[in-house]
């Protein structure tokens, strides 16, 4: 009897200590910056929704208070530097997430390095960002994964022989266009049309005529919303004889559907995550995140929101597991945890290489079929089968 | 009360007060790195606004293309440092001269146009410069931009190490010195005979030409000094941010905000645009943004509208006496 009582007392005591420790863990100070105003605001606001939810969910799940400091960098590199100066220099945050656009993430990550603050971004895909091998720099998405999804689809799924690539002259679209071209040429696919257009272009017919004259099988447009609307409308006017139309990010958004309606059918878009594309091992996690997001915002999460959520989760996990010493979390411990991260989540397997780039990052290619985004590549993440050839205006 | 209303500072006293405040500001904000970074961007804008006002407010030639000079300066300095191994300080001087070259290239033909046509021509010039930066990929890395632009080299003053990479304070004081230099250039130019000619050109070009003022030369002097100063600030900007792309170097911000800063501070004075830039940057960051996370720019626009309607001469317009030729008010 006494023995039992002792056991119960010890168990209760240990549980009390554990719970006490859990609740007594110091609050995690998390910094987040992103464009909430300015030209990139639409993307930054989406991303921030995921970040806020990620912080709330972590707090609920781990019973550790998360103090979230959000800073609007106004789509300006100067303000991106100010963001890190404020978050790391003044608020003394334990880690920073967010950032959208390589021209903002570049200066911000450099400032984070000066303050020795771990920085996990989801919005800078330029390969040069990790060239300096900052010890605090980590990112969840990467240009090579996006390019691989496009070239993989064209090579393996379409088995195209000739390609026309037209791209917006902005940084991200130029880099992905060049990467895809190089990969396709290496695979023996001819790219007779590789044409750049300026931001604000409204008449795409001259370059689409080149695609027609070269007899390209597939048209790849590396651009933004207005570029897709313009090229699809002009392709319809020309009845462009191609078998498929592939675009980069921004296809299939509510805005896209509103503007193009049935003219968006059969179009392919590139994405980091789509509902249902999580690997088997992460289906439950994906469903939970989506449910929590719907409950919080009354809408489905976009891939930007999912990236924001997951970056926050991974960063907070790393800070929390790194543990606090003398009432504060150590950057070195957080970095070590991030470097040692190797999990399977809604984005697939997540682990970082020595430069902070995601080692296993893959993107998906989806096709709009009856208004829905059906993931067709890679096959292990596919949610349906491809309808090829097929373009909204008839084509080949 | 009447005496208070009638109270007016001279340009010199106003400028001395402003630069004294700029000098002690870091102490007042306890060298807070975040505040410093905001005021660094305000000082860059302040210097560009003073330069813009020299052309528009003093000489009457409104420019919608200062982003062109800003971008030229940023690119020339970054390229000379990264591709030719120049010392950043010398590269900054060369960047200013490149701005002058650009000013002469556009100024000589465009000053034959009058009124809005000059403003439109210079707007087109800025766009051409941006397109060059996008397409001369071998030199500028195109739209992907130039990463890892080095900071200004540090140096020692006595036992103190001035490091532009680690601390915001040296960048702040360097930006303040540049703004002071731009102000002094504008100030002495306005006090000179050329400054008098600028007033004449601003008043009525034909009358000025009729009394023997070399109109084209006067306008070109104003434009080249303005372009030099703007390009210099562009060069400093790139060494401060460490990154450069056509979109940010030739951003419309550098065309629009100097106009806003000048209107807000007072185009009739030389120091007004600098003050206007400091105040609008501070108000937006520390007041509007604090209360309205995503809608703060709206208040900024409203404030500007209020100033234009109720105080068209700007914050300092009625409080500072204009200095003209030889310093006579």
What does it look like?
The complex is a heterodimer of chains A (396) and B (329). In chain A, helix 2 (41-62) packs across helix 10 and helix 3 packs parallel to helix 4. Chain A is built from twelve helices and 16 strands. In chain A, 45% of the residues lie in helices and 19% in strands. In chain A, the strands form five sheets. Chain A has a five-stranded parallel β-sheet with strand order 2-1-3-4-5, sandwiched between helices. A four-stranded parallel β-sheet of chain A has the order 7-6-8-9, sandwiched between helices. A three-stranded antiparallel β-sheet of chain A has the order 10-15-16. Chain A is α/β, with parallel strands linked by helices. The longest helix of chain A is centred in the first third of the chain and has 23 residues, at 2-24. In chain A, strand 3, helix 4 (102-114) and strand 4 form a beta-alpha-beta unit. Chain B is mainly alpha-helical. Chain B has 16 helices and six strands. In chain B, the strands form three sheets. In chain B, strands 1-6 form a two-stranded parallel ribbon. In chain B, strand 3 (155-157) and strand 4 form a beta hairpin. In chain B, helix 4 runs parallel beside helix 6 (116-135) and helix 14 packs across helix 15. The longest helix of chain B is centred in the last third of the chain and has 27 residues, at 215-241. Chain B is globular. At the A-B interface, helix 3, helix 4 and helix 6 of A face helix 3, helix 6 and helix 11 of B.
């Amino acid at each position: 009897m006494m023995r039992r009582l002792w056991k119960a007392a010890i168990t209760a005591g240990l549980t009390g200590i554990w719970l006490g420790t859990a609740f007594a863990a110091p609050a995690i100070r998390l910094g987040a910056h992103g464009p909430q105003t300015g030209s990139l605001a639409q993307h930054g606001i989406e991303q921030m929704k995921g970040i806020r939810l990620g912080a709330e969910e972590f707090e609920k799940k781990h019973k550790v208070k998360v103090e979230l400091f959000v800073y609007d960098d106004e789509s300006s590199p100067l303000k991106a530097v100010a963001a890190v100066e404020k978050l790391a220099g003044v608020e003394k945050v334990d880690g920073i997430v967010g950032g959208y656009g390589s021209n903002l993430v570049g200066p911000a990550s450099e400032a984070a390095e000066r303050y020795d603050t771990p920085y996990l971004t989801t919005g800078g895909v330029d390969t040069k960002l990790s060239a300096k091998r900052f010890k605090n720099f980590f990112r969840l998405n990467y240009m090579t994964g996006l390019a691989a999804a496009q070239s993989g689809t064209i090579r393996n799924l379409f088995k195209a022989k000739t390609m026309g690539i037209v791209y917006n002259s902005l940084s991200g679209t130029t880099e992905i266009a060049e990467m895809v071209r190089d990969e396709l040429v290496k695979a023996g696919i001819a790219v007779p049309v590789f044409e750049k257009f300026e931001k604000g272009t409204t008449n795409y017919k001259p370059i689409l005529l080149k695609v027609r004259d070269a007899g390209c099988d597939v048209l790849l447009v590396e651009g933004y919303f207005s570029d897709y609307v313009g090229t699809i409308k002009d392709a319809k006017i020309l009845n462009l004889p191609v078998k498929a139309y592939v675009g980069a990010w921004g296809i299939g958004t509510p805005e896209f559907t509103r503007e193009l309606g049935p003219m968006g059918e059969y179009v392919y878009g590139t994405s980091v995550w789509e509902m249902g594309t999580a690997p088997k091992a992460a289906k439950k996690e994906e469903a939970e995140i989506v449910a929590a997001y719907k409950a919080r915002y009354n809408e489905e999460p976009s891939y930007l929101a999912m990236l924001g959520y997951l970056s926050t989760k991974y960063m907070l996990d790393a800070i929390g597991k790194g543990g606090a010493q003398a009432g504060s979390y150590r950057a070195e411990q957080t970095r070590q945890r991030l470097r040692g991260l190797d999990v399977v989540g809604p984005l697939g397997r997540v682990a970082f290489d020595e430069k902070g780039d995601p080692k296993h990052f893959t993107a998906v290619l989806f096709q709009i079929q009856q208004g829905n985004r059906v993931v067709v590549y890679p096959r292990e993440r596919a949610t349906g089968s491809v309808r090829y050839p097929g373009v909204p205006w008839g084509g080949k | 009360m009447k005496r208070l209303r009638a109270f007016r500072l001279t340009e010199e006293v106003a400028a001395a007060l402003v630069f004294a405040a700029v000098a002690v500001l870091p102490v007042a904000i306890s060298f807070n790195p975040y505040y410093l970074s905001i005021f660094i961007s305000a000082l860059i804008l302040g210097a560009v606004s003073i330069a813009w006002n020299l052309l528009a407010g003093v000489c009457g030639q409104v420019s919608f293309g200062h982003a062109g000079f800003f971008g030229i300066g940023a690119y020339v300095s970054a390229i000379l440092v990264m591709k030719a191994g120049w010392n950043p300080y010398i590269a900054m001087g060369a960047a200013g001269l490149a701005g002058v070259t650009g000013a002469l290239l556009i100024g000589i033909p465009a000053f034959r146009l009058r009124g809005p046509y000059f403003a439109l021509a210079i707007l087109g010039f800025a766009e051409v410069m941006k397109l060059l930066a996008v397409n001369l990929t071998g030199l500028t890395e195109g739209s992907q931009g130039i990463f890892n632009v080095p900071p200004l080299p540090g140096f020692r003053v006595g036992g103190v190490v001035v490091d532009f990479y680690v601390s915001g304070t040296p960048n702040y004081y360097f930006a303040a010195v540049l703004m002071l230099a731009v102000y002094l250039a504008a100030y002495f130019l306005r006090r000179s005979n050329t400054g008098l000619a600028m007033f004449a050109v601003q008043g009525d070009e034909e009358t000025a030409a009729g009394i023997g003022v070399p109109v084209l030369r006067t306008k070109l002097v104003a434009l080249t000094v303005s372009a030099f100063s703007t390009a210099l600030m562009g060069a400093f900007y790139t060494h401060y941010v460490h990154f450069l792309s056509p979109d940010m170097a030739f951003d419309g911000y550098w065309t629009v905000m100097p106009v806003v800063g000048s209107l807000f501070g007072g185009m009739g004075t030389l120091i007004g645009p600098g003050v206007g830039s400091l105040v609008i940057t501070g108000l937006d960051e520390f007041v509007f943004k604090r209360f309205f996370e995503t809608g703060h720019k709206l208040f900024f626009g409203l404030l500007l509208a209020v100033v234009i309607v109720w105080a068209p001469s700007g914050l300092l317009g009625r409080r500072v006496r204009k200095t003209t030729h030889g310093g006579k008010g």
